[in-house]
């Protein structure tokens, strides 16, 4: 007899109930092994002779009229997600990996008494089952297989959650395999992520970019201001850092003549975790010779709009909460210092005395950042006064020099660099630069960062002699950008970061 699905949240399921169901299912496994001693695998055969898939059957026969018969025999397999055993006719719903379903009808007339009884006694919710028979439409219009032959393809030892109850967020991220079984949105997010990555690669290919891979284990961290994870190599008898950014290696590729280069891969930052941050995350970085941060902003807008269209069919996306958000058109570009000055009601420039910035922060209750410097305080004030008012996608242009050690100084504005951050949905989605390619100035910037590190700033960069040596061989004027793939999914779907990552890190 089919068991009853347990409540959606594992925390609500009495442990003794799960134990009892598992014991019953293990006994069925033993029976299958004994009865199929001549079949390799017993309750877990090495293969089953399917001839098609559930999605393919739905595509071909999904519009059959109620009661129609096709005369076509098909053999499919799927997970049992619903079962009803009634006398001489049993019904089961089989689900494919993409969530599509078909009904299996197991009747006494077609399979015989012994096979029907075995179905009732052995098949449970969650089992993978193989069925073969005629493709028909039931009297209620449900696309079905009128089963002539069946077999268990994989016996489930633990019960499924209730298919009609919502898993809690914690249960979803801890047991994503169950989330994928029971929730359409979980499967749709995996598909959306795949479409986004494919779209990004297609856009880059159309622009003549090459995709490369750079090291995740590095002898020193660099390319971003972040606290790294540290590990140990026994072979090299040395501490190594998990990559916080691929930037310094991708720029070496540009020095080597790969004028348009990108990478999609994992980064690791030993920092806090919240709705927009994960210690491990997917990152896109791209660099193009003979362009600047304006050209890279154009590229980034195209990448995101193409990705949105790949998922949603247009640049207008609908988030998980039903909000409609427009990613189309030309995006605004505003000055960090100019927008901050307007919001504060007085001019703020790179020359504004530090004490005056502190006074503004204290008056507004803005917490001073650790190891405060002029630029960090300007950025904190901008987030306090301006960030929350951004509704449309917006490039925030021209950042403080002292917070951007890898960026070229602005060509006409003293004290700032040619850098933008792209804000969508109220969070930073991407950042772009006119790259600093002068090795002498880069060394000076690294030296200033080293001083911050010596004062205890764990996010400050170190002097990277190998990178400097590459720059000394000549890097062409270039633009570069970095964008979190997880955050791009957030912008398109409206989900939190743990929902966009298939298997997020949890305690």
UniProtKB/TrEMBL annotation:
Binds 3 Mg(2+) ions per subunit. GO terms for cellular component: cytosol. Belongs to the class-II aminoacyl-tRNA synthetase family. Its cofactor is Mg(2+). Keywords: Aminoacyl-tRNA synthetase, ATP-binding, Cytoplasm, Ligase, Magnesium, Metal-binding, Nucleotide-binding, Protein biosynthesis. This is Lysine--tRNA ligase. Its EC number is 6.1.1.6. It holds the Pfam family tRNA-synt_2.
